[in-house]
Task: structure prediction
Amino acid sequence: MSSEQIRIGKDADMKLIRQYWKFEECVDGKEMLKKIERAGRTCYKSEDKITDDSARQFCLNMLKSGHHSVIEHHNITVRIITNRGVTHEIVRHRLASYSQESTRYCNYGGDDLVFILPVWMDNYALPLDQSINADALFIEGPSHLEAPDAFLYSLYQAELSYKYLLQEGWQPQCAREVLPNALKTELVMTANIREWRHFFSLRCSKAAHPQMRDLAKSMLLGFCSNIPAMFDDLYGRFVLRDE
Result:
């Protein structure tokens, strides 16, 4: 994770970070496959065929045969830090459990208001000694700015408005109406392996939103690194072939 402090005007510092994610618990991929194998072999009463290294091939056979209910026997939980626009899409995956930072109950009136830097602005850098002239913008508007600067200014306006409404006595759940999709949020998501495969098949594709796709491909790489076999075919599709 990296962050940038952007100064707009004389006194306002605005914090932007890049989205990231992490596993919420230790992921032992080999033990995960063994658990799935033990459950799956119940269907065939073939437990006597379990060996120290049979789990991987058994799980691959389940994927190949379409017997995907077997891979529902293990859940994986991650913590995702991204913007609210992305989480609005994530929570549409219904076969999962979610706990999300609430703008109703979280008060961002101090220094806690954070925005997510869009992936299409990764190559954009505001020089540290440069600031956007907010006073001129109030008079001229943002139309003379480059698009990235106009975006940053819109976040600045939202932050000022939100904090002003709090000062005027509005509750956080009311003042939140002025906050944009770029607002940083944290989401804890738990899903079984079958649903994670469904998630990656949709969210890693070229049809996905760029911010979502960037996050999902990063997660897919992490899942592939920690869990043998279960996501290798998706890695081939979305990373190697970039479908």
